[in-house]
Amino acid sequence: MAKHRIIFAGGGTGGTVGPGVAIAERLVGLDASVQIHFLCSDRVVDRMMLASGPWSFTPMPAVIPSIRPVAGLRFAVGWWRTRRAAERLIGTADGTRVVSLGGFVAPPVVAAANAAHVPVDLLNLDAVAGRANRWIARRATRILTAVPTDLPGAGSPLGIPLRQAVVPIDSRTEACEVLGLDPKLRTLLVTGASQGARSIDRFMQSFIDTETAALRGWQVLHLASPATSAVLVESYAAAGIPHLVLPFLDRMGLAWTVADLVISRGGASSVAEIAGSRTPAIILPYPWHRDRHQARNAEAIVEGGLAEVLDDPSDGPSAAASLADHLRSKLFDPEDLDHRRATAGVSTEDAAATIARLILEPDAGDSRSPSPIG
Predict the structure, then answer these.
(1) Domain for residue 365, yes or no?
(2) Which residue intervals of 180-264 are DSSP H helices?
(3) Is 64:47 a contact under the CB 8 Å cutoff?
(4) Cβ(267)–Cβ(18) below 8 Å
(5) CATH number of the domain to which 9 belongs
(6) 132 and 154 together in one domain
(7) For a Cys staple, 196 with which of 23, 32, 192, 300, CB 3.0–4.6 Å?
(8) What is the model's pTM?
(9) Does 94 share its domain with 199?
(10) Alpha carbons 283 and 326: distance in angstroms, whole number
(11) 218 SS3 class
(12) Which residues of the chain have pLDDT under 70?
């Protein structure tokens, strides 16, 4: 057996899997003998992000919790089956460590790790910790937080781990060539992250129709929901706006290389990528999160002068009108965007490398021991 065997638990969104991949990349660089296995969800985004790399992965049958009777039964069955599968895959504690990335896959895996007396690192990725992370925190050996958080027991923030595929490359011309974009035009990036955002897509469709003049001299790279992609392509084409509409882009570093302005959700990974690429941003937090944690995630880049947080256009006509006004003003003032990029006060340290070293050196900060649960 390798000296180190690391099992990552979590999945369902790129914002959950991506940081795990980033850490795994650095782990391999630090110790080529390390064995890495991901216990992820069965969603397509997980398979896409984990398909390449010197690690293995197993989709788990866990599903999102629900209070509805039938869905609740599926959750219970998925929990039980995931825990049993995790017990077989985790094996013994010798040389093994579980890293929880959060989300609905992680809790039953952590339960299996506790039963096997395998140490657990919780990597917290959100300013406002969710229910899964609060549950896991009480059972983790150590809490590593990427951002300032309200999670009890968390230490100093380490930064969001960014996988190598999301880091900008040196040549904007090369990135445009790979994407099929024009290097002479400024680029508006529109993204709802790995899950897409129909409310943003619908807003852009309306903006294309009513504000075509504001987009002159710009091209749009739009990562859209599959349900709206075809309509958006038609709208961009009809308005004569150069565009590339994709459902997903694994090499997001290319997008950050070419982007002069981004409209984005406020997931922790998205915010970190914005900071790492120093891309001026309009952040639209996911409107159905009652705790508004995506707005909290974006506080650092707002304070650093790189971003503004606005309400999602689904919140009503006034929210949509405010977003249109802000977007129009930024498209007509590219010099201000250049100034924001040049003067932004944001950190670009390699958090993934820091966290990888902590995982390989578990005695550096282990202050708690897991409590086995049934």
Answers:
(1) no
(2) 198-210, 229-239, 252-258
(3) no
(4) no
(5) 3.40.50.2000
(6) yes
(7) 192
(8) 0.77
(9) no
(10) 11
(11) strand
(12) 1-2, 93, 193-196, 288-291, 347-348, 364-374
Residue matched to tokens 């995630």:
297
Q: Which helix (H) or strand (E) covers residue 220, if one does?
A: strand 218-223
Joined together, the tokens standing for residue 311 give 């309400």
* DSSP symbol at 194: G
Q: At 267, which amino acid appears?
A: G
| Tokens encoding 98 | 């579980």
Our measurement of the distance from residue 108's CA atom to the centroid of its chain's CA atoms, rounded to an integer in Å, reads 22
Domain shared by 205 and 95, yes or no: no
Given the structure tokens 């039938």, which residue do they identify? 70
Same domain for 291 and 191? Answer: yes
Give how many domains the chain has, as a whole number. Answer: 2
179-237 per-position pLDDT tens digit: 999 999 999 999 986 555 889 999 999 999 999 999 999 999 999 988 889 999 999 99
- 131 and 210 belong to one structural domain: no
Query: Domain check: are 142 and 180 in the same one?
Result: no
Which residues constitute the domain of residue 235?
A: 166-343
3-state secondary structure at position 261: strand
For the CA atoms of 252, 256, 257, 263, the dihedral, rounded to the nearest 10 degrees, stands at 130
